[in-house]
Amino acid sequence: MRRLVFGILSALLLGIEILIGLFAHRWVRAYLGDVLVVILIYTIVRTISPYRPKKWFILPTVILIFSFIVEFLQLWGFCDRFGITNQLMRIIIGTGFSVWDLVCYAVGVVPCYVGEYVMKKYLLPIKAS
Predict the structure, then answer these.
(1) How many CA atoms lie within 13 A of 116 on its CB side?
(2) What is the pTM of this model?
(3) What letter would DSSP give residue 77?
(4) Where are the alpha helices (DSSP H) in 1-129?
(5) Could you give the angle at the alpha carbon of 24 between the alpha carbons of 5 and 83, nearest 5°?
(6) Phi-psi region of 83 (alpha: psi -120 to 50; beta: other; left: phi over 0)
(7) Deepest of 74, 80, 95, 114, by most Cβ within 10 A of its Cβ?
(8) Per-residue model confidence (pLDDT) at position 127
(9) How far apart are CA 43 and CA 38, in angstroms?
(10) Radius of gyration (Cα) for the chain, nearest Å?
């Protein structure tokens, strides 16, 4: 049941991200899209993985680190260095580094931390064996 809920959230967030990519401009596209993409990655992982780390903060932290790595790969010029010319892949990976993107990822991971903590503490405690 929990994975179904995360699957629905993933579909909704993906739809919002697509709409932002197609129609939004200025701060919505530049910042809100980056905040939501971290939450999208989190909900996708929670949808496809049957496992949950015993420590509530592990998954959001791994997603934040992954997001930072992708952003620093943009600084390094990953797409250009590897000759990636497919426009969709360049959009997904990104081609421009910004410190503000790192801030947006950090903001976006906060609801993931809160969600994990609430699930661990109140909704879905893992029983000690």
Answers:
(1) 23
(2) 0.88
(3) T
(4) 2-23, 26-27, 33-48, 58-76, 78-81, 87-93, 99-118
(5) 90
(6) left
(7) 74
(8) 55
(9) 9
(10) 16
Q: Determine the Cα–Cα distance for residues 48 and 66; give it in Å rounded to an integer.
A: 17
In the structure encoding, which two tokens stand for residue 76, read together? 């390094």
**DSSP summary character for residue 35:** H
- Most distant CA pair in the chain, distance: 51
Per-residue confidence in pLDDT tens, the chain, 129 aa: 889 999 999 999 999 999 998 898 899 988 999 999 999 999 999 999 988 888 999 999 999 999 999 999 999 999 999 999 998 899 888 889 999 999 999 999 999 999 999 988 887 665 544
